[in-house]
Amino acid sequence: MMCVICYGDRAALSVALPDIVKDFGLSPSQAGWVLSSFLWSYFFLNLPSSILLDRLGPRLVGILAVAVWSAAMVQGSLAMTLPAFLLSRVVLGVGEAPTFALGAKVMRLWSSPHQRGLMMTLFTSGISIGLASGALVAGYMVAQHGWRMTFIILSLVGFLWCLLWYFLYPPRTKATEKSIKKTRFSLRPFFASRSFWGVVIAQCCVNYANFLMMSWLPVILKQRMNLSVFDASVYTAYCYAGAVIISLVAGRIGESLHSTHANTRSGRKRIVALYLSMVSVLGILPFIHSVPLSMVCLILSMGFVTAGSGANMALLADLLVEHDALGAANGLVLTFSNGTGILAPVITGYILEFTGSFEYVFYMVAAIVLAGAGAILTFPRIPIKLDTVANG
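Below the sequence we write its predicted structure tokens.
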């Protein structure tokens, strides 16, 4: 639900973008910067917030994170100038920074190794569920009440989650606190690990596709199908609902295929490469002129974006020997991959401004994810062992 709320709030911005562009008088390239603005803080805080997660635990960090980004939604609804609105998106990025690392840590703690890939795919399917439900709800509410009221109402859902998380997630024990204080984490072994760089490159590539669709999908559908803002939000919801089904089915099949290589830590990399290769079907979208076939192409690629991201994070958990450092490891991967994510909406905005269509955008993202598939097949071979030492 945390992941659903996180991406539902992001979807609200994409759906409301035409009205926000009108209110602030933005060009397509400026709109691209608005879409990427939350990533400015998100990028820099992924690693620090994930290290904090390893220290304080999922219970406290979860409450703080969701409360901060929900407050940012309220701040954005009150903004009367573009700088004030951009500031609200930066604050939202501060709150969302530990989200993915927190989810990965909870999945590692509460699922068995042979279920890890499916559980991570289930968690990352919250991306598609959130974007689908967020697009649908925000589309209706923006049409009826305007984007400012929509942001306020969505923020209330986040505050409610904080209350539920406080009562539902078990507090940490003294034994857990003691073991965490004895561990010192070093970045150096990560940078020396080929396996780590394979995971990073794959996540960068799949994240480019993820943030492209997350930011521009309603606009893509509106342009290709000549839809209203509300109709575009409905079709966006259809795409993400279909992507959830594809990702969960792919996750289940992937775990079955992985069982034959479960004795090796890097065995899951073949599944990741397969999923990333499937994302590249976006490259044929410019040649498709049928609306139903276009929807099938988008749903397939988006479903495998989610499945690929989940399988890649499960691969990282498999490769990492010291599981107590998983939060920081995820944060480090996401620091790199979200740097790529920052570029996706901005580059797309400039391509759209100069060419007037998404044709070259689709070719570019297909080539990127295929490069990621090649990297994940080539690099990960041995476990990632960190330089951890005991303090006494």
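The chain has 16 helices and no strands.
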